[in-house]
Amino acid sequence: MQTRVALYLRLMKYRSFGKTGFETSEIGFGAWAIGGSWGAQSDGDSMAALHKALDLGVNFIDTAQGYGDGKSERIIGKVLKERSEDIFVATKTPPAPGDWPPSPYDSMEDRYGEAYLRSNVEDRLTQLGTDRIDLLQLHTWTRAWNRSPEPFAVLKKLKEEGKIRFVGISTPEHDQNAVIDLMRGGWVDSVQVIFNLFEQEPAAELLPVARETGTAIIVRVAFDEGALTGKWPRDHEFPEDDFRRHYFAGDRLERAVDRTDKIKPVAEAMGLAMPELALKFALSHSAVSNVIPGMRNVRQAELNCLVSNERILSSEELQKLHLHRWNRAFWYGGK
Ligand SMILES: NC(=O)c1ccc[n+]([C@@H]2O[C@H](COP(=O)([O-])OP(=O)(O)OC[C@H]3O[C@@H](n4cnc5c(N)ncnc54)[C@H](OP(=O)(O)O)[C@@H]3O)[C@@H](O)[C@H]2O)c1
């Protein structure tokens, strides 16, 4: 087992995280499910999964207040106290209570006012058990605020005060391109975006702009919440307390499974398992810094970390995968 771990460690690759000067692992740890809303999840499994990912070279973790109201952050803080490596932790501040995503009529002052941001950042520091946050991302946004994005001026002050190192934004799912003006305006160090075998629209503009501006790109939801792993039958049932019961409501699961089934033979011809193909696709764009699959147990951590290796998708393979893009609009679920 020790030999296998050593082998994995040699395999993990690292990329520049935008212009920050940090090199982060191609595979980061997506920490939503370990906070809750995904059915039964034991803290023991969560901690073991995170330890395993760190053993295998992961040095980037993504979490948020919203993942169990600080529970995911607390688990991460606890695990990191047991480790000696330097790990880059990204968390997120949600807008003050109201519509999700924010309505275009909402005032920035009401949702991301200075007093609110300051007290929320203090809470993030407490939950994580740290005195500086590596990356503070605003969890969602509306393009209505682009003309004068004052919350980022507040976050800049918090940077200068040493509370946070870098600032980012996570795209609103229904309007991911809303953040392009923020990249061009130099407001953000990083953008977190959905880019997967179904959702390929970011390749049109968002990713090229990230490359031009040197903005770090974190890819989330590479498995489309699990569908792109290809493990479910069309009639799979989610537990009551799993947000995917809503995300895949009605005929959504059947449609996602049918689409995935069409990709399976393509993956097989490439000699890749579906989860591997999904992560490699996310990493295939040169603007991408890392991909952050959710990992709920040791097995998933091992499988996902192993995907960072010398095997990259060729341009011919990518052309075949481009045919599987799916403009389905976004399915809000569980938020
Ligand atoms: N708005 C935002 O900013 C936002 C929204 C969503 C996510 N995120 C971030 O992005 C991260 C990734 O997204 P996600 O966790 O929502 O979804 P995801 O990465 O698309 O899917 C993760 C889920 O797939 C299953 N899985 C993982 N590895 C697998 C493997 N090798 N084989 C089979 N199944 C596997 C696990 O669930 P099961 O075993 O239960 O199937 C896991 O929880 C999150 O953890 C979070 O950090 C951010």
Features:
13% strand; alpha/beta; 10 strands; TIM Barrel; 335 residues; binds NADP nicotinamide-adenine-dinucleotide phosphate
Question: What small-molecule ligands were found?
Answer: NADP nicotinamide-adenine-dinucleotide phosphate
Q: Please state the structural category.
A: alpha/beta
Beta strand count: 10
CATH architecture term? Alpha-Beta Barrel
What would CATH call the homologous superfamily?
Answer: NADP-dependent oxidoreductase domain
Please estimate the helix content.
25-40%
Q: Round the mean pLDDT to the nearest integer and report it.
A: 95
- What separation lies between the terminal Cα atoms? 40 Å
Strand order in the sheet with the most strands: 3-4-5-6-7-8-9-10
Q: In angstroms, what is the radius of gyration?
A: 19 Å
Poorly predicted runs of 5 or more residues? none
| CATH T-level fold name | TIM Barrel
Number of helices: 13
CATH class: Alpha Beta
Strand content: 5-15%
| Major beta sheet summary | 8 strands, parallel
How do the helices and strands follow one another from N- to C-terminus? HEEEHEHEHHEHEHEHEHHHEHH
Structurally, how many domains make up the residues? 1
Shape: globular
